[in-house]
Amino acid sequence: MSARYDLHTHSLRSDGTSTPAEIAVEAAALGLAGFALTDHDTADGWDEAREAAAVAGIDFLPGMEITTKHDWRSTHLLAYGLDPQHPGLQAALERVRTSRHDRAREMVTLLAVDFDLDWESVLLANAGRTVGRPHLADALVDAGFYADRSIAFAEALHPGSPYYVPTYAVDTVDAIRLVRDAGGVPVLAHPAASRMRRPVDLGAIEEFVSAGLWGIELDHPENRDDWLPPLTELAESQGLVITGASDYHGTGKPNRLGERTSDEAVWQAIREQVAVTP
Ligand code: AMP
Ligand code: ZN
Ligand code: FE
Ligand code: FE
Asked: How far apart are alpha carbons 192 and 16 in whole angstroms?
């Protein structure tokens, strides 16, 4: 069998449930040749993942998933091998994380009207992580209101819920330019995810390509198959590389590590152009 690589995983440094080192061990046990750690808006897990991957004898690619928006629509941008010290990038990520923190506190305030939740304990339980709705889901699950994260999302945390508060996101075009400027490789994450009302617009993707987008994550467990044909056609005409990955969140989501993967050619093509080598 040819070498397979999972290019999209989340650890406890954001909203996954495995440590970066545990993901490396899990990936090796599954027979994956390598993986990228792509926690939300942080590079904090890279060193731990890199060391554990070396011990486990598999390849590692540092990455992150940046919270961005285009025309008021939430858009996730994967970025590989970027320099985390880049000042513009650091400032943008800092602003995103601060907003995520403030937004989580506001959502807890709204939730606390109907649920017995308290901000201090949510904060304490998630110190050092990029905070997101999954952590609010965990608090609701721990307090006995819901059975798991997915039910908490469906019932109380979705964007239409009265407890929902939006969070700051970097403009996608600006984020793509920042990633390139920081020596990284930008890939549009799950552009046909079923949770969206419609896939990312083709015109928007053309703008992203002009700004430096390199790849598009068309092979993702949450992409809707019936939305893919025009995106696949556009990827081909624009010369975008199609990537595959699981978006693993440990036990926090149904996505299984390695359920979607990229091949050696994609992996090497990213490694050859990144600023931060594994
Ligand atoms: P946020 O970052 O606060 O906007 O929350 C979105 C994050 O929650 C994304 O990383 C999703 O992968 C994750 N998420 C979305 N739906 C679910 C779900 N049903 N169960 C667990 N995690 C989810
Ligand atoms: Zn996540
Ligand atoms: Fe995402
Ligand atoms: Fe993700």
From this structure: 22
For residues 37 and 39, give the distance between their C-alpha atoms in angstroms, rounded to a whole number: 6
The tens digit of pLDDT for each residue in 195-242 reads 999 999 999 999 999 999 999 999 999 999 999 999 999 999 999 999
Determine, yes or no, domain membership for 205. Answer: yes
Nearest-atom index, ligand 1, CA of 100? 3
Contact 10, 36 (CB under 8 A): no
Specify whether 18 is located in the same domain as 143.
no
**Do 87 and 219 fall within a single domain?**
yes
Residue 252 CA, closest ligand 1 atom number: 21
Residue 274 CA to its chain's centroid (Å):
18
Protein residues near ligand 4, an ion, with CB under 5 A: 65, 247
0.90 exceeded by the pTM? yes
Contact by Cβ (8 Å): 178, 86: yes
Note whether 61 and 7 are within 8 A (CB).
Answer: yes
User: What's phi and psi for 186, nearest 5 deg?
Assistant: -90, 135
Are 197 and 229 in the same domain?
yes
Q: What is the CATH number of the domain that holds 56?
A: 3.20.20.140
